[in-house]
Design brief:
Blueprint: E1 3-8, E2 14-19, H1 22-30, E3 41-45, E4 48-52, E5 58-62, E6 68-73, E7 97-98, E8 103-104, E9 108-114, E10 123-126, E11 134-137, E12 139-145, E13 151-154, E14 178-179, E15 185-189, H2 191-197, H3 205-212, E16 221-225
Antiparallel strand pairs: 1-2, 3-4, 4-5, 5-6, 7-9, 8-9, 9-12, 10-11, 12-13, 14-15, 15-16
């Protein structure tokens, strides 16, 4: 693999190429060219493209003139996946890699990591195909505070939920599916789940009030949040 990203215009003309890191190439070579942990990831913050280059932990920003700037480097330390340790890696290995997407707000970066044997509280979800079969995965969401530099793993608050506990409203845990340019974190929840959650002890009066206006078919219920 030669490039982390190739930038094209609307006519598919190549405008710029972002080189793939040497560490990523060595990892691919050690695996014989195929791996599911090696992908670069493109995301956006206020319309500015960001790229995490493979699994080397480097997050770069791309300006309109295609100049790049390294914004963050994730230091995995001794838990980093390398060409030297990847061949023997399994779910019991103390190695970490980014899993799925990255999002960014004014104050935070949002991650999901595969912690393998380092996961002290693996996530419990329901299989998409059956919904009555539990799946246990060594995953953890994580927050990086851009201002303080504090990195926090976000444990699953309870089975089948993901994200941060709603300390104020007593509602279900929240994790953004999308972050708007004006800073709103957006997610959704099925109306029936929202209604059922409102019956729990500890739900706020405001939460119950919203639930009382919903029908089970009012799907989806959109949730907008701004972190303070």
């Amino acid at each position: 693999m030669e490039y982390s990203a190739i930038i094209i215009d609307s006519t598919s003309h190549i405008l710029h190429k972002i080189d793939y890191p040497e560490s990523g190439r060595a990892l691919l070579a050690a695996l014989g060219g195929f791996t599911s942990i090696q992908d670069s990831y493109l995301f956006s913050y206020k319309g500015v493209p960001r790229i995490m280059r493979a699994q080397d932990g480097e997050i770069i920003s791309i300006a309109k003139d295609f100049k790049t700037d390294t914004l963050y480097i994730l230091n995995y330390g001794k838990y980093k996946i390398t060409a030297d340790n990847v061949k023997g890696m399994n779910n019991q290995s103390p190695l970490i890699h980014r899993h799925l997407n990255i999002m960014e707000s004014e104050d935070y970066l949002f991650f999901l990591f595969n912690l393998r044997s380092l996961a002290h509280k693996p996530m419990v979800t329901l299989a998409k195909q059956t919904l009555d079969t539990e799946v246990i995965q060594p995953l953890s969401y994580a927050l990086f505070n851009k201002k303080s530099g504090i990195f926090t793993l976000v444990d699953q608050p309870e089975k089948y939920e993901k994200g941060m506990v709603d300390d104020l409203g007593g509602g279900p845990a929240f994790w953004p599916e999308y972050i708007s340019n004006d800073g709103y974190m957006i997610s959704y929840i099925p109306a029936l789940d929202f209604i059922n959650y409102s019956q729990r002890e500890g739900c706020s009066r405001d939460f119950k009030k919203v639930a009382s206006t919903l029908k089970e078919t009012d799907n989806p219920v959109m949730v907008f949040v701004k972190l303070k």
